[in-house]
Structures are given as C-alpha cells and as structure tokens.
Design goal:
By secondary structure, the protein is an alpha/beta fold. It has 19 helices and 25 strands. The longest helix is centred in the last third of the chain and has 26 residues.
C-alpha cells in the first residue's frame, strides 16, 4: 500500500508541476492559453532536474477528457491584469501563449491531424522529453537519421519510403549548409544497415563540381567529369538516344519547322547506311553526285540552287575533313546565276572537254555535255576522297552529312526555306566539337556501363554555359523516358532518383538567352516529371540557393523540403507562397537560422522541425566550403 500510495503521490506531483495554465480562447485550430503566474520563469525545477519552460516553438498538450491534444507554440505575449488595476494593486501582467493544434496522443502514440478541439478552461501541460520524442517518432520500419532538433535536441529521423519516394527540395543561401544536407541525406541512405539498392539508380547533375571528388558522399560511386574545353570523361549513350527528341533538345529546334526537318534528316541518314563502311562510302559518293546533277539541271536558276550547292560543298568538306579546297577544285566550284542559267568561269588550262561561251561554262538542260563533264570530274574527286578516307564513320559525322544533304534536297524541292531551317545545321556545326568531347555513342549507356554502381555523379563544372543548360535537360529527359517505357512494358519495380544541384540553372522561369517557346519546353519536361514521375518510380531532388528563380509549379509539387537560411525577400515570398506545410514560427525563423540548421517539413515528418544537420567527415564532404581569407591574407604567426 505504501508503494501504491507513493506512486499516486508521484503522479499527482508530476501533474501539478507540469500543469502550466488553462485554455481561455479557441478559434479553429488556434488555441490561447493563460499561463499560471508561478510558471513564468525561463526554467523550472522538479526533483533536482531543470526543465525548459514553455516558449515559442515548444510543444504543449491540452487535456480534454481522456485525450491529450498537442499544439506548437506560435507566439507568447502579456496583458495587464484588469483585476489588479481595479483593486489599486501594483500592476500585474498575465502571460499568454498561442498555439496551433498539430495532433494528439492516442494509445500512447502521436497522431498528426485534428481529432478534437479543446474546451475553455481545459488544462494545459508541459510535455515530457519522451512525449516530445514521440512527436518526431516514426511508424516506418526503416528510417535514416536527419539530425537533431534545434531546440529540443531530440534525434530526428525520416522514413526511407516517406522521404526518398518523394520529390525533395533543399534550399538555402551560400554558406547555409545545403550542400552538406544533400550529401548527408544520400550518405546516410547509402550507408544504411542491410540496404540493397540493386533496383535503384541515383544520378547527381553537379553544376559546380562539388560532388565529383572520389570520396564525396560515398566511395562506391562512378564519377563522370565532362568538359567542353579539354578532353575529360565522355558520357556513354546508346545510339538509340540519337533520335529527333535528342537533336531537338541539343539543337534547340523550333516545333513547327526545324523539328520536322530533323526528322527528315534522320530518315535520310538511314538511307546513307549500307552493309559495310566501304559500301556506305560508295553510296555517299553516288548520292552527292546525284545531288549535284539535280542542281546543274534545274531550270530557271535562282538563289536556291546556289544555296543548295554551297551546302553540298560544306557537307563534303566536313565529312572528308578537307583542309585545302584548291586541291579539290573540281568539287569546290563557284557557280553564279547568269542569263537565267547556272554557270561558272572558264579556265582554259583546267577545263578541257567543256563547251564554253564568252569565257563562261553554262549548265542546264540545254548544255548536257557540260553537265556530264562536270559531274564526271566531280565524282572522280569524290572517289579519290573515298579511297583515302581514314577512321570510322561516326554517328555525329553521318548525322551532319544527313543534315546538309537533306537541307539541300529540301531547298531544291521547295519543301523548306533555307533561312528557316539552316540555323539547325549552323548550331550543329558550332557544337560539333563540344559534342565529340562530351558523348561516346555506342551500344550501352552510362547506366549499363556501370551496373554495379548505384550512384553516378556527372560534373558540369568545366562545361560552357550554353551546354550546361542542354546536357541536364537531355539526360533527364532521356533517362526518364527510358525508365517510363520499361515500367510500362515490364511493370518492374525499379526507381530512378535524379538529383540536380544548383537547380535554378536549369529550372529558371526567366532566361534572356533563349526563346519563350524553348523555355516553355524546358520547364514542361521537368514539370511532367514532378507531376507524373512518382507513378513510374522517378523522383527529383532539387538543391538551390535561389528558389525564387525556380518555377512555382515545380516548387509547389515538392513533398519534402529542407530550408536553410534565406535572407532574400523574393526567396522568402516564394517559399511562403508555394510550400503549404510551413507554419508561421518556422517561416519567421528562416532568415536567422545558424549554419547547418534547417527547417525540415513535408510528408516525411509529422510537423515542421528545426533540425541541425551534422557535418559529414572531411573526406565525405562536398567541395563547397568558403575560403578562409584570414588564413590566406594574414600571417598565422601574428
């Protein structure tokens, strides 16, 4: 009986100690509590232990019958006690705290959501450390550690499914710790006990080369360092990738005129190929000769014949890598429209076998002998080039030839206007060297070439600005489509996680370097993934220091976010407008968070939590630290 009496007495003492006030106002999920006068100290003492008193961002439980309703304190304030004023006593102030309901305790477990609303004068209590832990506790069987709560110093975890089967956003100004957070999340995932990621792939599109060190995040990864300046690694892609969508992206083709031209060029490319390389080269010689025949015999000469022949010359020069045109004068003629016919200058020492008129050689249906002579010499030189051809016919070389020949054919046939579609060929020629440095076209892609590696990091640090926009879009589009097609065909449960660091570089709504239609296409690709990707097992992780630059549609579809310190008003407004599961207290703290701390909120957590993300070991950290100017500029001995 003495033991039972002591237990009851302890319970009554604990209840008396933890009671902090009563409910005096209820408005929806907003509850106002008047704090007892004895509970206004910053710390409370009970049985030799110090307890943190209630304050902003802390948690309170309100007892209603047999249910405990849990709320988070949004603000606190004081009011003058009217009774003390009326009785002419010294002024007394009453303390009040305002909280928002976030959940309730049921069968000893915390449940998020609203089941009951308190009545007036229901008692409010401090929550024990174990009860606070239950607010952060997960029902998931598998979880990873995120960090420790900033105020309660409770371990914060997230369920693997709730976090990684979602789209994740990581935002924060430079130096706020967002790169460490990204690396920490995936390091903790990859190093989880008993994990098997054999059916998943993670791609990091790394704009600044922060994750390209051998040990960053994990040593068990594959780094691909791309460069448009020097020859570094090449990105392995399958020949199947080189379709009209690939080239539409890479050449920024317009929808109505240039993309149909690319499709025609790809079909034409297939017609160039024959069984062996020798047969293919013979076929190319015949097609080039036939093209010139059409140009020479076309009646009513205009600029289109001149344009078509200039394209033909360009194709031959690039395909056969001709450095000196004079050695191949039979190919590199200079035609002009003269007396409504195609003609060129007559040179007696070189042009035997022609029938000139007034120092010019004329072609057309009325000058068949001249045409046949011109074609014969042209073909002889092409055969000479063919016989001296060295190396393999690459996909890029063949596609460039197909672009030129198709354009020449379209111009002569009045299918396309030269000025409308020629920019595609010019863009290809401008980017050809860069494409050769970046892509390795073969029978397997970078996934298939590294089947044992779950994490693949692709560094774009040394890629020029123009290609930095195109390569991530291209990779994302192609791997997403491939993954979706396999899912639809086989129904296999596999996941693809695309991590985009400095995502504002590719997801910006404002860009003055591209047309509106191209910007719309770029955003539509990512908006489709973020809206539809979950059903196919494709998930995005976006990291950015400028969320205001990213499409609002994309940010609003994120399921979980880690928000580090943000001080720019546009960024704060974007977060406020697009992320619905962020309470006022958490939002107001964003501009004053310490380095490494963030507000974690979304479907993987019961309530917004301020979390301190632990720093990774030096060898695992991304290379994003700020330079130490004191060590650089000042003598360490002084």
């Amino acid at each position: 009986m003495n033991t039972e009496h002591a237990t009851v007495e302890d319970m009554l003492q604990t209840k008396a100690f933890s009671k902090i006030g009563v409910v005096v106002e209820v408005e929806g999920k907003r509850i106002l509590i008047k704090v007892d006068n004895q509970k206004n100290l910053s710390n409370l003492f009970f049985k030799g232990e110090i307890f943190r008193n209630v304050g902003t961002s802390s948690y309170i439980k309100v007892k209603k019958d047999f249910l405990y309703i849990v709320g988070k304190v949004n603000k606190e304030f004081i009011k003058e006690n009217i009774k003390s004023r009326l009785e002419s006593h010294p002024v007394i102030y009453d303390r009040f705290v305002e909280l928002s309901i976030i959940g309730y305790f049921e069968n000893g477990k915390f449940v998020r959501g609203m089941k009951e609303i308190p009545f007036l004068y229901n008692e409010a209590f401090l929550m024990s450390e174990n009860e606070v832990k239950k607010v952060f506790q997960l029902t998931s069987r598998q979880s990873i550690e995120i960090g420790k709560s900033l105020f309660e110093e409770v371990r914060v975890e997230a369920g693997v499914t709730q976090l990684f089967a979602s789209h994740i956003g990581i935002f924060g100004n430079t130096g706020s710790g967002k790169s460490n957070t990204l690396a920490r999340l995936y390091h903790n995932l990859l190093s989880s006990d008993g994990i098997n990621l054999g059916k998943s792939k993670i791609i990091i599109l790394d704009f600044n080369g922060e994750y390209s060190n051998e040990n960053t995040i994990t040593i068990d990864k594959y780094n691909i360092i791309l460069s448009t300046r020097t020859q570094r690694d090449k990105l392995k892609i399958k020949k199947d990738w080189l379709d009209d969508e690939f080239w539409g992206i890479m050449l920024q083709a317009t929808e109505r005129t240039q993309k149909p031209y690319i499709k025609r060029a790809l079909i034409y490319q297939e017609s160039l190929l024959k069984g062996s390389q020798e047969d293919t080269l013979n076929n190319i010689v015949d097609i080039l000769t036939e093209q010139l025949k059409v140009i020479l015999n076309n009646g009513g000469v205009s600029n289109k014949e001149i344009d078509a022949f200039n394209l033909l010359k360009l194709c031959i020069k690039d395909f056969f890598d001709i450095q000196n045109e004079i050695e191949y004068r039979e190919i590199f003629r200079y035609y002009t429209a003269h007396n409504n016919d195609l003609s060129r200058q007559f040179y007696a020492q070189n042009d035997s076998g022609y029938s000139p008129w007034n120092t010019r050689i004329y072609f057309g249906s009325n000058n068949q002998a001249n045409c046949e002579r011109e074609l014969q010499l042209f073909k002889n030189k092409l055969v000479e080039l063919k016989d001296g051809f060295q190396g393999a016919i690459t996909e890029l070389k063949l596609f460039e030839l197909a672009l030129g020949l198709r354009l020449a054919k379209d111009v002569i046939s009045n299918i396309a206007q030269f000025d409308h579609v020629s920019p595609v060929l010019h863009r290809f020629q401008k980017r050809k060297r860069e494409l050769e440095k970046i892509f390795d076209v073969g029978t397997s892609d970078f996934f298939e070439a590294n089947p044992a590696k779950t994490l693949i990091s692709i560094s774009l640090k040394d890629v020029n600005t123009e290609m930095k926009k195109l390569i991530p879009l291209l990779i994302t589009k192609k791997v997403y489509d491939d993954h979706k097609d396999k899912h639809n065909e086989d129904g296999i449960d596999k996941t693809l996680h695309i991590v985009i660091d400095e995502a504002h570089n590719i997801l910006s709504e404002e860009s003055f370097r591209e047309s509106e239609s191209w910007k719309d296409y770029r955003l539509e690709v990512f908006e489709e993934i973020i809206k539809e990707g979950r059903k196919f097992g494709v998930f995005l992780t976006l990291s950015s220091q400028r969320p205001s630059d990213i499409s609002n549609t994309i940010i609003s579809q994120l399921h979980n976010v880690f928000i580090h310190r943000l001080i720019n008003n546009n960024d704060l407004q974007t977060i406020s407008r697009t992320i619905s599961f962020l309470d006022k207290v958490s939002f107001d703290s964003l501009s004053i968070l310490p380095p490494g701390a963030c507000v974690f909120t979304g479907t993987a957590t019961e309530t917004p939590i301020a979390v301190q993300i632990p720093l990774l070991k030096k060898e695992l950290q991304p290379t994003s630290e700020t330079i130490n100017l004191e060590g650089l500029w000042f003598n360490s001995e002084t």
